[in-house]
Amino acid sequence: MKRKVLLCALALTSWFSYGQISTYVLQPASIAGALDYTLPTDWGLSPDMSDPANLVQAFAAIVDDGTTADSLGCEPLVNGADIAGKIAIVYRGTCEFGMKALNAQNAGAVAVVIVNNIPGPPVGMAGGTSGASVSIPVVMISQDAGALIHDEVVAGNVEMFIGSVQNMFQANVSLAKASTLIPAQAARPALVSASATEFEVPLGAWLFNFGSDNQADVTLQATVTHNGNTVYDETSAASIVNSTDSVFFTLPTFTQNGYNGRYEITYTAHLTTNDEFPDDNTYSTSLSVDSVMSYAPLDANGMPEQMAFFKPATTGQVFQICAYFMDPNASRLRADGIYAAATLNAPATVDGQQLDIRLFEWNDVFTGLSDATFNEVSEIMNGIFEYTDSLQAREVQFIPFFEPTPLVDNQNYLFCVSTSNPDVFLGHNSAVNYRQNDETTDQINTLLNLDGTWSGGWATGEVPALGVKMVSATVGIKEQNMVELTPYPNPTSALLRIPVNGLTGKAAVQVYDPKGSKVADKQVIVGGDNILTMDLRGFNDGAYMFHVTFENGKRSSFRVVVTK
Fold this sequence. Notes:
Blueprint: H1 12-19, E1 21-27, E2 33-35, E3 40-41, E4 56-62, H2 80-83, E5 87-91, H3 97-106, E6 111-115, E7 125-126, E8 138-141, H4 143-154, E9 159-164, E10 173-174, E11 187-189, E12 201-209, E13 215-226, E14 229-235, E15 239-241, E16 246-254, E17 261-270, E18 282-290, E19 292-294, E20 308-310, E21 319-325, E22 333-340, E23 342-343, E24 354-362, E25 377-386, E26 397-406, E27 412-418, E28 425-429, H5 435-441, E29 446-450, E30 453-455, E31 463-464, E32 467-472, E33 495-499, E34 505-512, E35 518-526, E36 531-535, E37 542-550, E38 555-562
Parallel strand pairs: 3-7, 4-5, 5-6, 6-8, 11-18
Antiparallel strand pairs: 1-2, 1-9, 4-9, 10-12, 12-16, 13-14, 13-15, 13-17, 17-18, 19-32, 20-28, 21-27, 21-29, 22-26, 22-32, 23-28, 24-25, 24-27, 28-31, 29-30, 33-36, 34-35, 34-37, 37-38
């Protein structure tokens, strides 16, 4: 039976609904404006914040559960009189998000704002055991936004609203990141981006009218800058966008004779009148062209930017995050390894934890995300990284493959990162959203595997912040310790013999099954006949990856097919 990818792309109507929701500081004027936010993930009773009837507007107050100054809200609140009828401000940490929100709700709060306790954007919120009982709006804002409003909240000066801005203003046209066309990857190798025929960026976006008035002569502008110079500046034809309606605006495709370095892409929605809610009129993203392939934008150091860390909400689920790659000129490239980051909730540390990377050939026949199946996915290379210091948490690490791997033209590949500890969070990025690309081109970008089931990714749209180091296939591999071993018989049903002429002493043999799980890790002694023999009669049918490391530093990798 074919296993088809589970699509998580939302319908356009859902984009429209999500785009009109805002978490906004109305006063004082010195800090007024929209705040970046996230909504709960399926808490059951959570109100539909896209419905204007559920909008909440009130002054804000910090909760007090009798424990800390900036309360975590993990205990019943002791300042219920201050919280009743207010938007409760509570800080992330210690207990589940649902417990914090329920304690605020029980004290009479009309909504809850949870402040993140780590740098970066707000993250998704699972409700835990208490979330199903929460019926008031809940959002998370960033640590920086919490610091911005803190003192004014304490002074009682902060009035906010949470909910739909539909019809709150006469003139209000919106542009959302999930409704824009963006580069197929946020970072891609220059070696396969040598001309406009090898790579181009279609541009365009949906503009939504959340104002009460129809708007005539609405336009969309896009600019691209490179090294401080504007290399693209185009404005669409004008169009009417009626109230509660949306229009897709197309722009000329962005191309270059050759791509290199970083490009900044900015979309701007323009009205002929004054937009009364301009906070959502622009969106910016970037394209980096060098030696890294990534769907997450790169930071100032050229590494995938880590903005949020995720793991499945269901306890104990094994997962891996993957980036898709295929290119008609892929034979110019060699994949050397993957950049990735991880963390654990305090007080646990990453010291001693292991990240696994895997490279899969994906040989199913498909045209795009909508008809993708996963019956012919086989691992061809892997690598491991073990944390040795708690300070490495959240920091990007380079994890080399056991062997640098030349790529093949038009071959579908999956580059994946996983961990055997289900409590480990893997790095993601929320600055981009590929949903419009998915809708327009049926593009495959990043994938998620939960307990062996593939899907199109997290429902909230974050992408894995992993990057693949890709260099020229013609550059010599500096690794002098690689040796070529040719095992026989291959395929085999029982014993496998590995000639190791010229190599003696101890050797470590690691074996990975077709799903990438380690099934053997043995210390052996190479015999006097210089043949290493292994009994594979206990293995199931399939292609297994072997990595052999000798005590003198020499190493080799190869695949063996087991048939019964």
